[in-house]
Write a sequence for this structure.
């Protein structure tokens, strides 16, 4: 029986692990190519498109929803306001003008930003989505591109240029970056979150079939309207999954832009991380069920293969047991090391942090694999999430119920 379970789990888990290494190599090659010459288009574009992309600097409205005092809020807001971009407006939107984040932003920026008050969200719509909806309705007429950011991340001065530039290709739907956690104090829970979340960043595709993460997204205004994004946002708490769904329905690609990555610096305990990660997977389960299910099954096989291999070791089949462990664990650790290398490319200013904590992307991978399984199991048990003072029940991708404030 043990031998049967060993082969049942190890063969598919090993094959998936080896395949994921090749996927990781393609990701690394894409990031290297993009960051060597960030003004260039991806290979295969027509001659001269690189200059078109570099020269594409349309007027932009950058929308930042805020609530509460996020870690590093002052630096985060200043990084967005200080973009090296010739023509953009920064709109800061909140439910309440008395929100402490608004007060902090007014003190920091003065008239360098426009402040909007969205008021109470209608029933069944998340507060952030409502804030974004109100802000989109009030952008200046001359803005050709809408860009979205989150208040818990810091960006480089060239972030907005990098995010907007690929939209020179009018057949493209949207562009996106993603977050990377650089917890200022280290700590087990914080590092675990960084390694866990880096696996999502590391699965961004060189092809234009990504999802548009809400903390770093740009989209042409006419594309936003034509794809009926506001309709997709009705009754939802997930701005990014639903914007992505709108792009998918419109058959428009979403391009990952390595130069538009976002650094977050907050710390967390192990319990805080697990609650946060579970919330992410509950949202994924509701809005991208096939993706959630595929990830769940993959980690059942990965963890099952580890247990079966340990069983072979305990019951005297050491060569097979060691082989199974190596096949299922080592490729993932190697891919984690690759993600640490890519982080150095995307965040050269974080080299000191990576010198100190970069080991985590290799050595913590086995723990992260089991953490993924825990998070998948926990997310399978409920559709309720707690998010910034609300409890939401995610009835479907188009319907949300607010349980309590």
């Amino acid at each position: 029986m043990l031998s049967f379970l060993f082969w049942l789990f190890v063969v598919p888990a090993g094959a998936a692990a080896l395949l994921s290494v090749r996927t990781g190599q393609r990701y690394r090659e894409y990031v290297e190519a993009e960051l060597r010459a960030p003004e260039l288009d991806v290979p295969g574009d027509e001659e001269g498109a690189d200059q078109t992309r570099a020269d594409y600097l349309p007027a932009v409205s950058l929308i930042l929803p805020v609530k509460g005092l996020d870690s590093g809020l002052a630096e985060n807001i200043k990084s967005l306001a200080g973009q090296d971009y010739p023509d953009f407006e920064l709109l800061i939107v909140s439910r309440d003008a008395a929100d402490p984040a608004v007060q902090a932003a007014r003190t920091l920026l003065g008239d360098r930003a426009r402040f909007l008050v969205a008021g109470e969200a209608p029933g069944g719509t998340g507060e952030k989505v409502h804030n974004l909806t109100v802000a989109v309705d009030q952008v200046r007429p001359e803005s050709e591109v809408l860009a979205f950011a989150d208040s818990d991340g810091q960006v480089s001065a060239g972030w907005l240029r990098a995010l907007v530039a690929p939209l020179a290709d009018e057949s493209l739907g949207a562009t996106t970056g993603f977050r990377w956690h650089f917890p200022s104090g280290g700590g087990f829970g914080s590092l675990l979150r960084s390694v866990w979340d880096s696996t999502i960043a590391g699965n961004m595709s060189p092809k234009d079939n990504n999802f548009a993460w809400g903390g770093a997204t740009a989209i042409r205004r006419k594309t936003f309207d034509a794809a009926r994004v506001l309709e997709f946002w009705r009754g939802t708490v997930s701005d990014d999954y639903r914007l992505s769904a709108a792009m998918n329905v419109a058959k428009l690609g979403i391009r990952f832009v390595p130069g538009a990555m976002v650094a977050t610096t907050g710390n967390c305990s192990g319990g805080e991380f697990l609650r946060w990660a579970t919330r992410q997977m509950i949202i994924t389960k509701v809005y991208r069920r096939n993706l959630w299910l595929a990830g769940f099954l993959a980690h059942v096989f990965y963890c099952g293969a580890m247990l079966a291999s340990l069983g072979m070791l305990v019951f005297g089949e050491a060569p097979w047991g060691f082989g199974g462990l190596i096949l299922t664990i080592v490729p993932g650790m190697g891919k984690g090391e690759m993600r640490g290398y890519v982080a150095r490319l995307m965040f050269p200013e974080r080299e000191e942090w990576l010198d100190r904590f970069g080991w985590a992307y290799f050595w913590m991978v086995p723990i992260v694999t089991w953490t993924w399984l825990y998070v998948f199991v926990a997310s399978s048990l409920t559709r309720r999430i707690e998010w910034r003072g609300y409890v939401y029940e995610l009835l479907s991708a188009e319907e949300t119920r607010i349980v309590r404030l």
Notes: The chain has a mean pLDDT of 93. The radius of gyration is 22 Å. The chain has two domains: 2-24+271-404, 29-270.
